[in-house]
């Protein structure tokens, strides 16, 4: 079957026009079907091959079949494990290029055909596995205007024409309603009503089933946090087989975004090899990655065992412990730039020396480098020390990714300008994109997402908003101290004597952001709005794609356990920088690959 449009050359739909079911229970309306899932797909009337394929599969009380290639991106489009996708109640098929021609079918489950099975059933030139839907009977669903639904999809997403859409009856009804006029508070600039779709329903539409190559490298991810390194490495094609962190909210976020990866929430020094092997079986990871805190690192004395016995060094040696257990081919350790100057460089040299003696194959050849996140497409001038080690017996030299050849550094405005422009105290758990993506960065962030999440603005007092109004781009609280400075606790008429130059710094919209640290919720002000950044805006500045959902409390009080969403985001390794490191590691282990 010929391609539909350029990017969809591997997306196929089958439909039989010749078979009509009986009239029993044919008529439905959207009110009756508000909670049912509809698959909206297309067919091409000029493709005779699809009709022939369907007719060969008649019988078994079926009046046709419809199939879509599994996976996502280059590997297909959908995730068969998602019940919303695997078992829609209805299938609506429209003619590609002529949306006035529409057919409605009651669906009767789905099944998987392998490439070989597709070929056996007469399908020409199959590519990979397919999810095949059984069309049980033709029916009518009153009140659906497919042209309006598709028009709204084109307006609010980067949807490719012809790609299948999965919506409930309630969502279809909402999509056909006229756009709401802006209300007094511009409460969410949502196209849909707030109660139309829940966060859980949004999550169910996200395809977390990333398809890796059969020979994909594997990683163990330590001090994983919410998963910045893991996400970047997975985008590079490296499959995580185990992750660990001590923070319970990081565990929630990690499990949400990597549901198939075993996670152990525990102090790394207390983890045993038996616990890990129980979760990964007999698999030996190719790579171990992580960022052990080294800020309190003690040299003790020059005897290695004394250094490793010092409790201040226990987290780093927890990382080394895993390398000794598994002797991976490569390890990657990331840390703050300040590591280079700790105790006049002695801490770094001690760490490198430990790696040179780690594992069972003669230690590791190691190299370190400071990488700048904005060199890899991240809208942020964050620096991180990256130590890469290659197992000595392999004869492979460690190296670091070269900066990308960019036309310019991605700016704050380019990163976040397509998100709803909400004021302080505004936002909702699920929101609509108010505009189409404005640039390549935004298109990349929105590739697998149709809604905005984690985008609720903080509740600022009128006094704080007045302060923000006085702060110009590049300025901070210290520039408006006399009028808008912080007051003493218990004495609101007196200014505090404590001044922090980074507090409430308004960022330049036309430049990359400075380092988005764990405290960014109070450090920075939006370039154009009088409020701090939302968690989603911070995630964009860290290059987390929009389908990465953050769990746990949004902000945190001092007595609460676990890291907030802001802290998780600020502590993470920028995803696109992690992706570049992952691609570099792949090329180290596959010298014939010259992709970088």
What can you see in these coordinates?
This protein is α/β, with parallel strands linked by helices. Helices cover 27% and strands 20% of the residues. The protein has 20 helices and 20 strands. Strands 1, 2, 3, 4, 5, 6 and 7 form a 7-stranded mixed β-sheet that branches. Helix 7 crosses helix 20. The chain is globular. Mean pLDDT is 83; it is low at 1-24, 72-76 and 180-195.
Structure, briefly:
This protein has 20 helices and 20 strands.
Largest sheet: 7 strands, mixed
Share of residues in strands = 15-25%
What overall geometry do the principal axes of the alpha carbons give?
A: globular
Class derived from helix and strand content: alpha/beta
Count of helix runs: 20
Q: Uncertain runs with pLDDT below 50, 5 residues or more? A: 1-24, 72-76, 180-195
Query: What's the pLDDT, averaged over the residues?
Result: 83
Q: Helical residue percent?
A: 25-40%
What is the number of beta strands?
A: 20
Cα radius of gyration in angstroms: 27 Å
Distance between the termini: 35 Å
Oligomer: single chain
Present the secondary structure layout.
Elements: E1 27-29, E2 37-43, H1 48-55, E3 65-69, H2 83-86, E4 90-95, E5 98-113, H3 115-120, E6 130-142, H4 146-156, E7 165-168, H5 169-176, H6 199-205, E8 218-222, H7 228-236, E9 239-245, H8 248-257, E10 263-265, H9 273-280, E11 287-290, H10 304-309, H11 314-326, E12 330-335, H12 346-356, E13 364-372, E14 383-391, H13 412-416, E15 427-431, H14 440-445, E16 452-456, H15 462-470, H16 481-484, E17 487-488, E18 491-495, E19 505-506, H17 520-523, E20 524-525, H18 535-541, H19 565-571, H20 575-589
Parallel strand pairs: 1-6, 2-4, 8-9, 8-11, 9-10, 11-12, 19-20
Antiparallel strand pairs: 2-7, 3-6, 4-5, 5-6, 12-14, 13-14, 15-16, 17-18
Helix pairs in contact: 7-20
């Amino acid at each position: 079957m010929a391609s539909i449009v350029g990017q969809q050359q591997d997306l196929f739909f089958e439909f039989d026009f010749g078979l009509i079911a009986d009239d029993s229970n044919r008529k439905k309306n959207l009110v009756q079907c508000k909670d049912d899932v509809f698959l909206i797909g297309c067919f091409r009337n000029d493709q005779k091959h699809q009709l022939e394929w369907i007719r060969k599969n008649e019988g078994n009380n079926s009046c046709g079949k419809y199939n879509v290639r599994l996976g996502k991106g280059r590997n297909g489009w959908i995730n068969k494990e998602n019940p919303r996708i695997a078992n829609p109640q209805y299938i609506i098929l429209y003619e590609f290029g002529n949306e006035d021609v529409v057919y409605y079918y009651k669906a009767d489950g789905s099944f998987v055909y392998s490439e070989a099975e597709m070929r056996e059933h007469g399908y020409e030139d199959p590519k990979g596995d397919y999810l095949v839907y059984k069309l049980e009977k033709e029916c009518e669903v009153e009140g659906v205007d497919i042209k309006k639904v598709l028009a709204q999809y084109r307006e609010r997403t980067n949807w490719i024409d012809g790609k299948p859409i999965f919506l409930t009856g309630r969502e279809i009804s909402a999509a056909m309603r006229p756009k709401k006029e802006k209300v007094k508070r511009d409460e969410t600039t949502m196209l849909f009503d707030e109660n139309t779709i829940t966060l859980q329903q949004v999550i169910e539409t996200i395809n977390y089933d990333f398809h890796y190559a059969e020979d994909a490298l594997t990683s163990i991810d330590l001090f994983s946090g919410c998963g910045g390194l893991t996400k970047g490495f997975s985008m590079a094609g490296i499959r995580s087989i185990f992750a660990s962190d001590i923070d319970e909210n990081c565990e929630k976020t990690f499990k949400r975004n990597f549901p198939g990866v075993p996670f152990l929430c525990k102090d790394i020094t207390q983890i045993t090899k038996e616990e890990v092997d129980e979760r990964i079986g007999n698999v030996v990871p190719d790579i171990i990655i992580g960022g052990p805190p080294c800020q309190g690192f003690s040299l003790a004395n020059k005897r290695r065992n004394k250094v490793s016995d010092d409790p201040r060094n226990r987290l780093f040696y927890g990382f080394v412990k895993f390398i000794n257990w598994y002797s991976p081919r490569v390890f990657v350790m990331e840390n703050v730039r300040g590591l280079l100057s700790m105790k006049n460089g002695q801490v770094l040299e001690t760490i490198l020396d430990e790696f040179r003696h780690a594992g069972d194959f003669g230690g590791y050849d190691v190299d370190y480098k400071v990488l700048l996140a904005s060199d890899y497409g991240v809208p942020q001038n964050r620096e991180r020390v990256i130590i890469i080690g290659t197992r000595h017996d392999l004869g492979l030299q460690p190296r670091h990714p070269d900066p990308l050849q960019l036309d310019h550094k991605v700016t704050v405005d380019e990163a976040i300008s397509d998100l709803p422009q909400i004021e302080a105290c505004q936002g909702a758990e699920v929101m609509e994109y108010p505009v189409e993506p404005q640039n390549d960065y935004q298109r990349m962030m929105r590739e697998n997402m149709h809604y905005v999440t984690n985008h609720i603005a903080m509740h600022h007092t009128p006094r704080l908003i007045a302060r923000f109004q006085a702060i110009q781009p590049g300025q901070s609280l210290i520039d408006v101290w006399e009028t808008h400075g912080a007051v003493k606790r218990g004495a609101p008429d007196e200014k505090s004597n404590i001044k922090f130059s980074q507090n409430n710094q308004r960022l330049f919209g036309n430049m990359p952001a400075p380092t988005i640290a764990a405290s960014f919720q109070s450090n920075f002000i939006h370039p154009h709005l009088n409020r701090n950044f939302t968690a989603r805006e911070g995630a964009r500045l860290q290059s987390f794609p929009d389908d990465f959902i953050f769990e746990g409390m949004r902000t945190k009080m001092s007595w609460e356990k676990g890291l907030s969403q802001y802290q998780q985001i600020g502590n993470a390794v920028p995803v696109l920088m992690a992706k570049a490191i992952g691609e570099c590691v792949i090329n180290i282990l596959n010298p014939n690959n010259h992709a970088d």
